[in-house]
Amino acid sequence: MYTDSSPDCPSTCRVVCLSVPELVLCSGFRRNQQSGITLIELLMFIVIVSVGVAGILSVMNVTTRYSEDPLQRKQAVAIAESMLEEIRLQPFTYCAPSDANALTATNVGGCAGVPGISSEDVLPAFSRVSNLSRREADNVADYNNFSMSPIRDVQGTLIEGLASYSVTVTIQQVGDTLTPSLPKNDVLQIDVRVVSSNTDLSLTGYRFRYAPNAIP
Fold this sequence. Notes:
The protein is of the alpha+beta class. The protein has a domain at about 65-210. Helix content is about 20%, strand content about 20%. The chain has 2 helices and 6 strands. It has helices spanning about 40-65, 70-90, and strands at about 15-20, 25, 145-150, 165-175, 185-195, 200-210. The protein has a 4-stranded antiparallel β-sheet with strand order 3-4-5-6. Strands 1-2 form a two-stranded antiparallel sheet. The longest helix has 28 residues, at about 40-65. It is elongated, with a radius of gyration of 42 Å. InterPro entries: N_methyl_site (IPR012902). This is MSHA pilin protein MshD. It holds the Pfam family N_methyl. It comes from Glaciimonas immobilis. Keywords: Membrane, Transmembrane, Transmembrane helix.
């Protein structure tokens, strides 16, 4: 009996063999060879893959959610610019535009007066413009504290796809804050704010009084 490997001893046998002339006998059984992976290795693999997949899905979720932001911002900019342009195109006079002296008055005292319409130098506490039907205004100041949601065009028609947007307008008299300084009431600062889910955008414009030279 010997414990060394022998060419006469098949490779599938254990190393302990009994040598007899012209006969080699193997004691024991075939080698117990391990194949595949262990349970611990399998569990580790599942955990690692799960973490990787969760990370990828998280990134995809964020990417998908914020991929809409550029479109929302473009729509918000378009709404704000349109609203600001609409307001700036309104008359800005000392008197109501329908006043007989609107083209000649150089101050509020020069207005002839229109029944039911106070001086345009006084900003109204509430908007005088409808946010449900056709928007009609006599002066820039009429839009002070204007709000609208959902978005409608100037005719009062709902605009498809803009139901989640809202717009607000605030107007301030800022002539005395400029350089060179002007009469406070002669310059209006118009702030338009548009809000929708992940978008909050503000746009500011100014309107100078041209009266009595022109209306508007």
